[in-house]
Amino acid sequence: MKTILVDSSVWIEYFRGKKEVQSLNELIDLNQICVNNLILSELIPFLKIKKENELIKLLKTIKNIAIKIDWEEIIHFQEINLRNGINKVGIADLIIVQNVRDNELSLFSLDKHFKLMGENIDFDRWEMPKNF
To answer: What confidence score (pLDDT) does residue 54 get?
Structure first.
């Protein structure tokens, strides 16, 4: 099983206690997850405002995958999206896809952009098995 990059959309629902993402507990126990600084930068400011210092500490203990940006590839990904009618994909999402591909990870996200991009850009998306 590949290591799973957990997107901020999953973490947000997890922190809210949503049943749809509670399988994250098992992935955490199996030590199968990772984050990157982009995802942390989306989560930590909100957690700081809410004074969730323990959550911040826990997030910082998760394996962190370095991001190396290849801007030509990012431009290419966005061109593919636009040619296929996929608009309004942010640069952050493109960087996450590149990070997943470069490190042979699987992406766990609830963001619809990733599902749409996955139809035209080759990257591994993790979907929760029904019996998980």
So the answer is: 96
Alpha-carbon distance 116 to 113, whole Å? 5
pLDDT in tens, 32-45: 999 999 999 999 99
pLDDT of residue 19: 85
Evaluate whether 63 touches 33 at the Cβ level (below 8 Å). Answer: yes
Structural domain includes residue 72: yes
Q: How far apart are CA 103 and CA 65, in angstroms?
A: 8
Let me know the angle formed at the C-alpha of 64 by 97 and 28, rounded to the nearest 5 degrees.
Answer: 95
CB 8 within 8 A of CB 15: no
Domain containing 91 — which CATH number?
Answer: 3.40.50.1010
From the DSSP assignment, how many helices (H) and strands (E) are in the chain?
A: 7, 4
User: Number of folded domains in the chain?
Assistant: 1
Residue 130 lies in a domain: no
| pTM higher than the cut 0.85 | yes
